[in-house]
Amino acid sequence: MDNEGLKNVLSEWAEGLEWEEGTQFLHVRVPAAALHTFARQLKTDQETAFDYLYCLTGVDWPEHMEVVYHLESTIHGHKIVLKARTDGREDPVLDTVCDIWPTADPHEREVFDLFGVRFNNHPDLRRILLTDEWEGYPLRKDYKDEINMIQL
Amino acid sequence: MSELVLTEPGIEALSTEEYFINMGPQHPSTHGVLRLVLTIDGEIIRKVEPHIGYIHRSIEKMCEHDSYRQIIHLTDRMDYLSCHMNNEAVCLAIESALQIEVPERVKVIRTIVSELTRLSSHQLWWGVMGMDLGAITSFLYGFRDREMINDIFEETCGARLTMNYNVPGGLMFDIHPNFQQRTKDFLAHFRTKLPEYDRLLSDNPILRSRTEGVGLLSKEDAIAYGITGPSGRASGFACDIRKRLPYSAYPQVEFKEILLTEGDCFARYKARILEMWESISIIEQLIDNIPEGEFQVPTKQVIKLPKGEFYQRVETARGDFGVYIISDGNKSPYRLKFRSPGFSNLFVLDKVARGCKIADLVAIMSTFDYVMPDIDR
């Protein structure tokens, strides 16, 4: 399905979708509350069938955190970028999608580890790259570490 | 694979107890600092929990402070066996963002060097895989042939492992005058040696019995867990970026995407052996047809990408490698994410290895071909 077709189909699934075009892929931002149902429908609906989550990552924006899901359908070949914003930066929370795409499990742990975004219903949300006693979330823009200065 | 169950009348099944053991962080067959916490019942694995991060260098954070030219030099320290493809991914992302069209010569040379890198990665994997399963000879043969490729790289760009041959807009230097001849010599040599690999390992009954039917991964699981590269294709997941989203000179060469259906350790083994034949064929199609021209187009000293998001995927020796750049228009990216194939490939271990024996886990890890710096970043 081309971007226009996807847009028409997906627009009916949830309220409050925001679209971005002009870049490589079609981008859709879904309200955090609708994330899980929307993601499940992207995977299970025969028309869209986004079964391959090839990238999941976080971004730290000044006002909020954002989690970005790059999706591809191995059946139809179309791609989409799904985004969801958290409410503020202090205690960011989103629903997990690892019950939909199992590969999201370690990726969400990484986002939790480095950005501090918590994922509801994640079966095993622990730090993954850093040690359990690490303080702070290094990929946040305001992260300061006096000892290990990695700024060049 | 099968569990010991005593079913004879009058004999109660032996009571067993689950317990944990650590495999790694220093274990010869984890190929780097990886710690696996195994829950085992006798010798049967009930659960595998990978603990990673021992060589996490925070490359993504460093990238936020580096210029785009500097970033390239960090990428070959991730998957050092696919260094050229990692460099290429960043360069392609920058070039597509700046809408730079690189000369045909660059595309062809990049493709040849990519395939040579893939060959050398698979040669190393083949040698180490044999050693993991107890065959020391294969290690020596794999390294013998790999040496020739390293020599070719050394002559052309000065480095043998972490090459940094790509720059935005082309290549750092032109190829060495000997490059074509030495590559052809290597191919002629390797065409006679690759059947030896088959005679030594592929047809070996011990290797067969340790890999066939072991570590099964279905196509659905391969897609769901994002298993790419030869490991994914051995389960039937058509994930070859060179075919699906062709870049550089891949659109102009003919090669088969190796797709197998068995999904066991031997299929993953076979996929890499067959892929080596395809790589040889790709290089042979290109090596005499390197177009004349510039090896680099001039770019600004300080590269600034336009505001926006750019995603570039390439096929490394381990699978679908992605560079995701969010640019705010400055000389460093606002956010840069490396989607490393090994990271996704590692976390399917629990799924694949449950019910196997500990010795099978070594075979499974070998055929998934993990490179730890790629996973930890």
Summary tags:
heterodimer; A: 152 residues; alpha/beta; 5-stranded mixed beta sheet; two-stranded parallel sheet; 7 strands; globular; B: 377 residues; alpha+beta; 3-stranded antiparallel beta sheet; 15 helices; 47% helix; 13% strand
Protein architecture, described:
Chain A has 3 helices and 7 strands; from the N terminus they run H-E-E-H-E-E-E-E-H-E. Chain A has helices at residues 3-11, 35-44, 104-115, and strands spanning 18-20, 27-29, 52-60, 65-72, 79-85, 93-95, 118-120. In chain A, a hairpin with a 6-residue loop joins strand 1 (18-20) and strand 2 (27-29). Chain A starts with a helix and ends in a 32-residue tail after the last strand. With 377 residues, chain B is α+β, with helices and mostly antiparallel strands. Chain B has helices spanning 59-63, 68-75, 83-98, 104-132, 136-157, 179-202, 205-211, 219-224, 229-233, 241-244, 265-287, 341-346, 349-353, 358-368, 372-376; strands at residues 18-23, 35-41, 44-51, 166-167, 170-171, 308-316, 319-327, 335-339. In chain B, helix 3 (83-98) packs antiparallel against helix 4, helix 4 packs antiparallel against helix 14 and helix 11 runs parallel beside helix 14. At the A-B interface, strand 3 and helix 3 of A face helix 1, helix 8, strand 6, strand 7 and strand 8 of B.
